[in-house]
């Protein structure tokens, strides 16, 4: 989830997490040791976000530029335009390599500072950092809130042990949070729409994971609510950081809607 950008935090913290992961995998820094690729340590989207946007003009001007480029592509200027695009792509790739090298150098410097730290300590420090996000431990679903005009709003639907929360992607604090006592009903309106009724509000979400969203809410529900057996027990975060956890399918793909996960202390992306 860290590598896919689903743990909002600062770039400095992401570098520290990468260094802790290296310490856990390789122990103390050594120039001769095997190094994982940067994308196995650091979220690639952070590097791509540093690159200049392809068009900084207004949408109408951008469309006009693309139209002119399309008309010219079949004429004498076609080869010149293709060459310009190739040169631009090459510059962007070069910039991306530079940003990647700079980030890797910063990670290695942080790794050197961890000399002497054992693997359990590195894992504990890693988990302590990611647990600073209030949404840690939730199962996240990528959804579009349908009620928003003129277009749906892309959100994360986080289903936790005590509440269902809505996050703007990349932001630490939830836009809204609903404890299970406030949720009167939930379910699938159709194959792509998930409905959540909170007191006098109906929230409709477009998602390709309707089935898993429904499954994931049920076990977290308080005993006796939403048709859950009276003897059912909501899932609570384990006090043992190495205990296996059972979670529904969210933004981290699994083989099915329910599956035992690796120990929380292991570094699986």
Automatic annotation (TrEMBL):
Record domain FERM: where: 1-231
InterPro entries given in the database record: Actin_motor_Myosin, FERM/acyl-CoA-bd_prot_sf, FERM_2, FERM_central, FERM_domain, PH-like_dom_sf
Pfam family, one: FERM_M
PROSITE patterns associated with the record: FERM_3 (PS50057)
UniProt name for this protein: MYO10 protein
Organism: Hemiprocne comata
Record lineage: Eukaryota, Metazoa, Chordata, Craniata, Vertebrata
